[in-house]
Amino acid sequence: MKAITIGVIGCGYWGPNLLRNFAENEGAELRWMCDVDERRLASFGRRYPATQTTVDYRTLLVDPQLDAVVIATPVATHFKFAKDALEAGKHVFIEKPFTASAREAEELIELAERQKLTVMVDHTFIYTGAVRKIKEIVESGELGDLLYFDSVRINLGLFQRDINVVWDLAPHDLSIMDFIIERQPEAVSAIGSCHIERGIENIAYVMLRFADEFIAHFHFNWLAPVKIRRTLLGGSRKMIVYDDIEPTEKIRIYDKGVTTNRSEEASDREAAYRTLVSYRTGDVWVPKLDSTEALQYACAEFLSAIREARRPLTDGQAGLRVVRILEAAQKSINEGGRPVKL
Q1: Is 1.10.3720.10 the CATH number for 4-125+293-312?
Q2: Which CATH number fits domain 126-290+325-341: 3.40.50.720, 3.30.360.10, 1.10.3210.10, 3.30.70.20?
Q3: What residues does each domain of the chain span?
Q4: Where are the strands (E) in the chain, listed by range?
Q5: Quick one: pLDDT at residue 277?
Q6: Looking at the whole model, is its pTM more than 0.85?
Q7: Cβ(154)–Cβ(172) below 8 Å
Q8: CA–CA separation, 61 vs 87, rounded Å?
Q9: Where are the beta strands (DSSP E) in 157-238?
Q10: Spatial distance between the Cα atoms of 82 and 68, rounded to a whole number of angstroms
Q11: What is the DSSP track for 66-108?
Q12: Which has the minimum average pLDDT: 137-141, 191-195, 208-212, 259-263?
């Protein structure tokens, strides 16, 4: 099996993880590394001596032996780099968020389809053992009807100058929700505050409304004294608590719920006061999870999608759905929390 040749653009915060995973994958050959920082390039050049380095990404694109480009740069550059790579006939793996706007995402999807190339978005959490297990449980029907998705992702920093806390942190939880519940919200409302730098929200609350009674709420914060990565998924029969900070017991399934019984003899007005509420408390189950690094699976999925000429699990459409919500949330924040229809 011929290895798929990979070029990585951006060797900063997330880039080293991508370099390592593609270098260690037997189905890939790490052919190029690109970064504007020459000292950083020299450092990685010593680590991967067989890989060529350049400060100009266009050098990668003219290499006829390069199959795919991995983009791990600031979101404002994603569209330009990805478009140029697709036009050069290269498959594209791109860090979250996919693009800075839905319009850019749509254009990249159309271009990839026209060129018959693979576009994949690095929604890494989709490939974790925890999220894949939650998906499996939801699909089994064990939780019953889904009622709500409630997520908190807070910590102290990292403050950024090019994007706010929503564009930085929300892609993780929005992509998780999108993967698990497989339904699209009808409207988004959000509020945020800028305590450190004007125009860059460092704390935000985002709420999604759906056609039925399902509801989703998210809390993002760069100014918290503790690090919390916790999601609650409520069902009519059982509920899940997903705590990504937990080293081993990341998922707990609670056999808890509420049932109501109304008297059929009473009028509607009386029934409201005579509703009998009973609380059910059962066992707590902690499933065993696959502990393999999620990015290892993500990189393998990209390579498999190229070989099999199929859509990857987190394709351009998945990235577009997240970007649409991000745009709507930003618009709502800018308009004081007004609900924005999708």
Answers
A1: no
A2: 3.30.360.10
A3: 4-125+293-312, 126-290+325-341
A4: 4-9, 28-34, 52-54, 68-71, 91-95, 119-122, 146-156, 187-193, 203-209, 215-221, 223-235, 239-243, 251-261, 276-285, 340-341
A5: 73
A6: yes
A7: no
A8: 9
A9: 187-193, 203-209, 215-221, 223-235
A10: 11
A11: --EEEE-S-HHHHHHHHHHHHHTT-EEEEESSS-SSHHHHHHH
A12: 259-263
**Which DSSP string do the residues of 319-342 spell out, in sequence order?**
HHHHHHHHHHHHHHHHTTT--EE-
> Averaged over 110-131, what is the pLDDT?
98
Count the residues in the chain: 342
Side chain identity at 261, as an amino acid letter? N
Q: Do 4-125+293-312 and 126-290+325-341 share a fold?
A: no
Main-chain phi, psi angles of 3, to 5 degrees? -70, 145
8 Å CB contact between 229 and 220: no
> Which residue in the block uniquely carries the two structure tokens 């608590």?
241
Nearest Cα neighbor of 93 from 161, 19, 182 is: 19
In angstroms, the first-to-last Cα distance of the chain is 44
